[in-house]
Amino acid sequence: MRIGFIGLGNMGGPMASHIVEAGHDVTVYDMKKEAAAPQLGKGARWADSPMAVAAASEIVFTSLPGPKEVEAVALGEAGLLQGAAQGMVYIDLSTNSPTLVRHIAEVYQERGLHVLDAPVSGGPIGAQQATLAVMVGGDRAVYDRVKPVLDAIGNKVSYVGAIGSGAIAKLVHNMIAICTQAILAEGLTLGVKAGVEPEPLRKAIADGAVGQGLMLNYMVPNVVFKGDFDTVRFALRLARKDIGLASTLGREYEVPMKVANIVEQDLVEAMAKGWGDRDSTVPFQLQEERAGVKVRQS
Ligand code: NAD
Description:
This protein is an alpha/beta fold. The chain is built from 14 helices and nine strands. The site of nicotinamide-adenine-dinucleotide has 24 residues, from helix 4, strand 7 and helix 7.
């Protein structure tokens, strides 16, 4: 297929190379021409603007820093919209604003063009090894049509939902990853300052429920999706005791634990509601009440 690729940085560069290597006819552009050297060396063609890339392509990918650059390339002067022929599919791989993606999709739809948001996860190593997770939002039929091309850049390509859904999933993913890093920092500084060696501590956590991914892969589908906070696997009063012991340890050893202290207050609130004999997952219900939404899936 005739494919365009714009934004050849740490992520876009290796992704574009895989698309060239998969045998497609690829046209590339980056505001820094030198960034295109690896793809040009593999047989890709250079175009002088996003508009020229669009004119040469049936599918155009962008992997750009953020919303400002995506808006300029998708809708701006000498941008994709000015070069695109009817039926072109534009796929944004950047971590971008769902609101902007939906706006671009509306504008493109009026011109008979298709848009998918397809942010990626896995970092430059995943991009180099083509092992990225690709989270796709947009029209299902368009997704099915371009899936073989997406398979060239990642081995975990998944359809998430309507336009903007990929971007939302990616932002939720990164928010959880960033907060997980903060709670790991609290936990590991607590453990090490209280006297445990770093590696045995890491291994103990890795071997436990957290390391086995039970929160996301067991608790969420089996408890939260069913709203089953009353089958008691681990009582709230026991979890409240445990986070209380951990925060007491933090105070003994002068370890600040902001995130753990906020979470402890949620457990205190749930206890005060008389939920001590419900399951320890029941604080999830508190957040659902605050957010005004239930996370259920049949
Ligand atoms: P990067 O800065 O390495 O690459 C961005 C490229 O876009 C550069 O080559 C730059 O010259 C080019 N560019 C910028 N503005 C442009 C414009 N107006 N027109 C044409 N080219 C332009 O960034 P990256 O690390 O490759 O990230 C790209 C996207 O992927 C970002 O949205 C990022 O959040 C996301 N992402 C990054 C990682 C990571 O680990 N680096 C992981 C997942 C997702």
